[in-house]
Design goal:
Its main location: membrane. Belongs to the protein kinase superfamily. Ser/Thr protein kinase family. This protein is α+β, with helices and mostly antiparallel strands. Among the domains are: 125 residues, Agglutinin, subunit A (Orthogonal Prism), CATH 2.90.10.10; 111 residues, Phosphorylase Kinase, domain 1, CATH 3.30.200.20; 210 residues, Transferase(Phosphotransferase), domain 1, CATH 1.10.510.10. The chain is 19% helix and 26% strand. It has 16 helices and 46 strands. The longest helix is centred in the C-terminal third of the chain and has 21 residues. The chain is flat, with a radius of gyration of 35 Å. The chain binds 2-acetamido-2-deoxy-beta-D-glucopyranose (9 copies). The site of one 2-acetamido-2-deoxy-beta-D-glucopyranose has 10 residues, from strand 9.
Length: 825
Amino acid sequence: MKSFWFILLCGVAHLLLSSVAAVDTLGHNQTLTDGQTRVSSGNIFTLGFFSPGNSTYRYVGIWYANVPVQTVIWVANNQNPMNDSSGVLKIAEDGNLVIVNSTGLVWSSGVSIAGNDTSVQMLDSGNLVLSSSSNSTGYLWQSFDHIGNTFLAGMKQGLNLKTGQQWYIQSWKSLNDPSPGDYTDKLENPEFPQLIIRKGDVKQYRIGPWNGIDFIYGGIPLTTGKILYPTMYSDENEVYIVLKTSSQSIIARTFLNETGVLQDYYWNQQMGQWIDVLTMQQDVCKRYNQCGNNGVCDSTASTLCRCLKGFTPKVPQKWQLQDWSDGCVRQTVMNCEKEYGFLKLTNEVNLPDLLQYSVNSSMNLQECQAICLSNCSCSAFSNLQMIGEGSGCALWFGDLVDMRADTDDGVVLYLKLLPSEIDSGGGSKKKRRLVIAVTTSVVLAILVLVPLGWYSRRKARRDLRGGKCFGESMFTTQELGHEEDLELPMYDLFTIKAITANFANSKKIGEGGFGPVYKAELATGQEIAIKRLSKNSRQGLNEFKNEATLIAKLQHRNLVRLLGCCIQDEERILIYEYLPNGSLNSFIFDATHGSVLDWKKRRDIILGIARGLLYLHRDSRLRLIHRDLKASNVLLDNELNPKISDFGMARTFQGEPVEDKTRRVVGTYGYMSPEYAIDGLFSIKSDVFSFGVLLLEIVSGKRNRGFCHPEHDLSLLGHVNDCSLAWNLLNEGKELELVDPMIGEEYPKSEVSRCIQVGLLCVQRHPKDRPTMPAALSMLDTEDILLPHPKEPGFYTERSLHDFSSASDAPMASNEMSVTWIEPR
Ligand SMILES: *[C@@H]1O[C@H](CO)[C@@H](O)[C@H](O)[C@H]1NC(C)=O
Ligand SMILES: *[C@@H]1O[C@H](CO)[C@@H](O)[C@H](O)[C@H]1NC(C)=O
Ligand SMILES: *[C@@H]1O[C@H](CO)[C@@H](O)[C@H](O)[C@H]1NC(C)=O
Ligand SMILES: *[C@@H]1O[C@H](CO)[C@@H](O)[C@H](O)[C@H]1NC(C)=O
Ligand SMILES: *[C@@H]1O[C@H](CO)[C@@H](O)[C@H](O)[C@H]1NC(C)=O
Ligand SMILES: *[C@@H]1O[C@H](CO)[C@@H](O)[C@H](O)[C@H]1NC(C)=O
Ligand SMILES: *[C@@H]1O[C@H](CO)[C@@H](O)[C@H](O)[C@H]1NC(C)=O
Ligand SMILES: *[C@@H]1O[C@H](CO)[C@@H](O)[C@H](O)[C@H]1NC(C)=O
Ligand SMILES: *[C@@H]1O[C@H](CO)[C@@H](O)[C@H](O)[C@H]1NC(C)=O
């Protein structure tokens, strides 16, 4: 009896153990029925039965185990669905993986060499593999060889040159029907590989060719933040790309949807949704041959299509009506008797489609050029590879097809033209160089001398773009009176969307005057703050450029650092260092935080702000007036060091600081000096005024606007309902009544008193009475300087206070202002 129990227990244990161990495999004698699953060992992918969309049909497929939105990446019987749940997945007698239903075979892996010792395993890569225990030389069959609409890291896309086998992506018919749809994405032209998306046989979109390092995307910025990136493999047998993810833990896929749009998605765990980080065909210029033969598509130009230099619209009337389909023809018909030269197009267009072409990887550019000159139908040539200084030869014959403006991919194309056509039109902005005869050393505009791989290549390219936030055509720093390149990295919108989970509310850390601010993390782990300027904010392109240009040039420990920017589509985005403690606002005006700031800390903050402002006014290369200094624009770092931010309204001044008059009065009520609020006059002394207000707020812990002292019923700066002035307190020698109780009783009275006095000196009514920042700073810093007695400060009427207190943070244009300046009595 005992032995019976023992055997039973052993049996149960064995069963349990074997079922645990084999949870990702299906052995010879096992079956998987509808409702059962196999899960890869790392719990990444699930194999099982499912019904797509609204369909009631049953399919066997693979989906992500950890993604709650069922996302199927592969389907076995996509062409032969079952209409009930009688299906069974198992290893057949012949060793193949099969699906059978009550009447027979539904689907089979269909390999002929299978044996009777096969098993199938669900791998963490998403690959379902059939292997034989007696044959360890690879898989007998694998799902990765049968790509559906989803391309995963580790899959191959390409072709076997010997067998003709092709690995390609094919869309589903619809969300409800995983059978092969109209769209395919195939790797073509193996000698110079391109990816082509077709609807049926018709080309829709082209990525490439592969330049040895990367695909030429033609204007799509791929960034360091990219999640999936391709590597090309080729030998005499096979040519294919494999995607890699930037990190093992990233759940990402490339997906060809039912309308032929190729997208890169990654799963954002926090958001609980797929984020589209790269949609390939988002731009109208991505449509195949949008501008017709020999036309160039440029969605940033005023007219979408233009002809290549030396070409003219084939049917000018239609071209004028923006019907580009006929494309362009040569101004002068190619005549083999004539002598031709080449126009070098650097970073102007992508490489044309490979229709009539030839390539030779061992020719150099001179040989390439010689061939193109000698063959009458040759119309252009370029290097085949961009590695190093470039190598190989690619020749195009006849029309040049599917070209778009491309300033990002480092493409150099030599266009065959008559010398007269090359010379004409010298007014062109871009530098073009004439290459007529074969020169001994053809120097190519190659971005990096030593190929360091994809990443560094991308990075180098980005850096080389000048780190320019604004292309030359988009931006002239008018305020500065001269053009200057910004040493400011450009971030790509897709990256930003990815790291902010598409500007998710959960990532939002604040709302500035011009739009929300998000916190995010770069791939490097660095925390950043992303300021997304709202489309309807009053900060237009000018202010945006202004802010970015200005801050990019500012370097001071009391100024917030700008790390980059992004101008794409309608978006205007600034990327700053992230300061974990947020704004001063939340410390000084908040009962729970206020106690963090003792007097010493407050004094340090005041001095820090003063130094930052001094730097702006005097020491920076630019010399500028901030114009919107306030508590919410002062951020605090880890150690509560203040950093001035928000330069959207800043103005530079040249040479001697002068009063300037501005059409638009912008700023924040309560901090605005009277001469600025009323007459639109601003100078460095308007900043000094704002600094004074801020100083008094830091000391008192009270907002200037609307604040009345509980006992004396007085506002910090102005008469409101017979409130007395802080100034009155000073006159009565009771200025210490202003001090924030949060500071406690223990503080150096004379120092605080001195500080208040400096604050009041800064808010005097007449600009000329106010000290400059250097003077204010030394007054704060040095005990020995004797302070003048401040004159009465500038202030507003009761009515204006009332009117503006609600809209106080909004920028105001002068015509909306009704502030009245009362002469102090
Ligand atoms: C499968 O079943 C056969 C007979 O039904 C048996 O002889 C064989 O040992 C089984 N194999 C496994 C791996 O369980
Ligand atoms: C699913 O069915 C509903 C109602 O019949 C329909 O409105 C919806 O479009 C269907 N969804 C898909 C993806 O076909
Ligand atoms: C499934 O298909 C079979 C054969 O086509 C048919 O006899 C059966 O009625 C179908 N079952 C359902 C539930 O539609
Ligand atoms: C079983 O599958 C076959 C092939 O797909 C199909 O013709 C048949 O109707 C199915 N039978 C049932 C009962 O679903
Ligand atoms: C498997 O096939 C081999 C050779 O064909 C045969 O010797 C062996 O008996 C088979 N095993 C089973 C379990 O069918
Ligand atoms: C073992 O598997 C490999 C790859 O599937 C196949 O090419 C080979 O013919 C198999 N060997 C035997 C002995 O079945
Ligand atoms: C495919 O993707 C594009 C771009 O995101 C989208 O506009 C389109 O609606 C999608 N098609 C389907 C069928 O979901
Ligand atoms: C490529 O160019 C080299 C050098 O000019 C030449 O020897 C070779 O035949 C060419 N190959 C092809 C396929 O044309
Ligand atoms: C020019 O090149 C094309 C394409 O390679 C070829 O078919 C044609 O024969 C060449 N013509 C001459 C004159 O060499």
